[in-house]
User: Fold this.
Amino acid sequence: WYLHNTKQWYQRRVRATKPQPYYFEVHTSHEKNAGTTGPINVAVEGAIGKTDFGPIWSDLGKGSVKNFTALGSPTGLISCIELTMLTPDNWMPNKVVVQSEDNKGIHTKRYFYSNYIWMSSDPSKGVLTQEICKQGDTVYAIAVTTSTMKGADADHIWPSVIIKGTKGETETGILVNQNHDDYEKGVTDIYTFPGMKDVGQISCIQVVVRGNGDWLFDTMVVQRENQDPVTFNNADEVFVSKTGENTFCL
Assistant:
């Protein structure tokens, strides 16, 4: 018994001190001029500490998905990621997925969403540093059907959805699918967002629009993993826009 527990203690201690692998999946926005040659400084923070990897990301093209691997000291379960621009280029991240080894030796993914935020070391172009923290461990799927009415479709509106319920609210990342023309008339688009907060029983949604266009959808269906879908009907045919309230409730 003593030897067994001593071995377990030693294995945990080794895992807590030796460098661990971190895997980054970096999604850059499809917005015009969203890409950068870099470099970008990356740090992560978790339950037992913070690791600064230095300038490990570069050459992030518009609409690209790139993977990076780095070794760093253990942080435990990751809660936040901090990105710092080291170039006067513009860059707009869309999503970062981080997979690491936690204090039990199990690889765990964390999802971080950046909603239409320009970054640059030039303060006239964007923010220098952005810290993004995880919202939770719940998965939500959103299926939205764009109306067939004239002018219903949209481009460059960069919407996200605030899901509201009995336990609070959570905001998705940007509703965009890789290499796909979103928000087309009569088309149903489906988006999945892991890493969201559990809002309990869903009651309302608010669509946040960042571009200058407007968009008319017929229905938006929100479903938490392993639960029944909740359908919001746009019965009043309200166009959502940057200046609109864009809130729909049951």
Summary: The first strand starts at residue 20 and ends at 28.
